[in-house]
Design goal:
Strand order of the largest sheet: 1-4-5-15-10-11-14
Distance between the termini: 57 Å
Structural class: alpha/beta
CATH topology of one domain: Rossmann fold
Oligomer: single chain
CATH architecture of one domain: 3-Layer(aba) Sandwich
Helix content: 40-55%
Number of strands: 15
Strand content: 15-25%
Largest sheet: 7 strands, mixed
Radius of gyration: 20 Å
């Protein structure tokens, strides 16, 4: 019988995170303040512990994973690599398709890979509370879990439209002791201002980040934790790509193309960064970020300096952005709602090292259903983006009569996202192309700093 799963043992769990910064073609652009001057690392001490700040700016290629973090990760890692034999058969493609399944974590996604690390470093620094934001709920539930593991209180500002659409994500966070607040809220000045302007504001990740950062900066016992975008988060996620390479080596295979869903960049960095050294050494491999056409940050955004949040509480980063005041359409059910992207991912995309494609909402859910009926796993809406990209690659291989090896990240299961699938089956979802004039307007609202 052909093997569906390629498994590693707990002894093969990576001992180090891979830091891509030393291997970039040029140094990353610095984070800057409103005056355009670089923000020194110590400026981050108001919301981050020393261990996280060190990782954010580190030039070390390999950073050791603390043993308590490895022990926490070992509850579900190494995660399985699957050969999608049933999907290959259903598509009639000559391509081989592999997917790294991150839905085996307790919260059902890849997000705990960074959450447990961030909780550990905050505990070591004597912090008692964490604030954060969440959109679809994967990150919020992951940090609630990590807070429970390391004895920290966690308050989660959840984008209001998701808070209302996904009640069982809220239940999951609360089961692990997290406090969930719909954003915008009346608990922060940022939230009050947003509600005063629009009492029916559906919220955005940028706005929820502003609320969480504002609270953390105002309390000595509280720090902020972020689920994507920043360098240290992508660093923590590189165990995904490292495990994948080790598993593929066991069966003597290697991908021609690697795909991952892209919102803020944690999936892309986690899977793709460990493959970059091979690409730089001449390996013929394509690395493709897949994003929604209703939130087309890489494919249609501006590469410019912008705030990471709506209110301007964060440092200004050079990234692909739709503008920090971007508000995703309420009909967008597929997640990946962030206005910007990781500075590292943005730099690599700008240099042509990574590719990006945008896919429409209906085709994305179509792919998720097709995958579920072949492979049995119901993907999270965010994960459906990479499924769509992988299916499209496999169908191209079929048309061209070419064998190729396709790898993608299945970043989580959709068990708490069935309301979105219900809308798909009821024909209530619609495709939405983010308007060109709205993207152009974002350019005028960007901070006037940087080059």
């Amino acid at each position: 019988m052909a093997e569906h799963k390629i498994l590693l043992t707990e002894a093969e769990l990576p001992t180090h995170w891979y830091n891509v910064i030393p291997d970039l073609p040029s140094p990353p652009a610095p984070y800057v303040g409103p005056d355009g001057a670089p923000v020194p690392p110590e400026a981050m001490q108001a919301i981050f512990p020393p261990g996280i700040i060190e990782q954010e700016v580190s030039q070390e290629r390999w950073i050791a994973i603390p043993e308590p973090v490895r022990e926490a990760l070992a509850l579900w890692r190494p995660s399985p690599l699957y050969r999608a034999l049933n999907l290959e058969k259903a598509l009639g493609t000559p391509a081989k398709i592999y997917y790294k399944y991150e839905g085996v974590s307790p919260s059902g996604s890849h997000k705990p890979n960074s959450a447990v690390a961030q909780a550990y470093y905050n505990q070591q620094a004597g912090i008692k509370r964490l604030t954060t934001e969440t959109g679809a709920g994967q990150w919020g539930s992951s940090l609630a879990l990590a807070g429970q593991m390391f004895g920290l209180e966690v308050r989660i500002y959840m984008v209001k439209v998701s808070y209302e659409q996904k009640p069982f994500r809220r239940s999951m966070m609360e089961t692990w002791g997290g406090e969930v607040i719909p954003s915008p809220s009346s608990l922060t000045e940022t939230g009050k201002a947003a509600l005063a302007k629009d009492p029916d504001n559906p919220g955005s990740l940028g706005l929820a980040i502003s609320e969480a950062v504002e609270e953390a900066a105002g309390r000595a016992d509280t720090n902020y934790a972020l689920g994507s975008v920043l360098n240290h988060v992508l660093l923590h996620q590189t165990i995904i790509g490292q495990e994948t390479k080790a598993a593929l080596a066991k069966v003597g295979d290697y991908p021609d193309v690697v795909l991952a869903p892209c919102g803020g960049g944690s999936n892309v960095g986690g899977m793709m960064f460990p493959f970059l050294a091979d690409k730089a050494a001449g390996k013929d491999i394509r690395l493709v970020a897949v994003e929604p056409s209703s939130c087309p940050t890489l494919t249609r955004g501006h590469y410019a300096y912008d705030y990471g949040d709506s209110a301007g509480h964060t440092p200004i980063m050079k990234m692909y952005t739709l503008g920090h005041d971007f508000m995703p359409p309420g009909i967008h059910a597929g997640g990946l709602r962030y206005h910007g992207d990781s500075a590292l991912v943005s730099q690599l995309y700008d240099k042509g090292i990574l590719e990006a494609v945008a896919v429409p909402q209906i085709a994305t859910f179509q792919a998720g259903v097709e995958f579920a009926r072949a492979e049995g796993i119901i993907p999270a809406p965010e994960s459906c983006h990479s499924v769509r990209g992988a299916i499209d690659e496999a169908l191209r291989a079929k048309e061209e009569g070419k064998e190729k090896t396709i790898l993608f990240t299945l970043s989580g299961h959709g068990h708490f996202d069935m309301a979105a699938y219900d809308k798909y089956f009821a024909g209530e979802l619609e495709d939405f192309e983010y308007p060109a004039d709205a993207i152009d307007q974002a350019l005028h609202n960007l901070p006037k700093v940087g080059t």
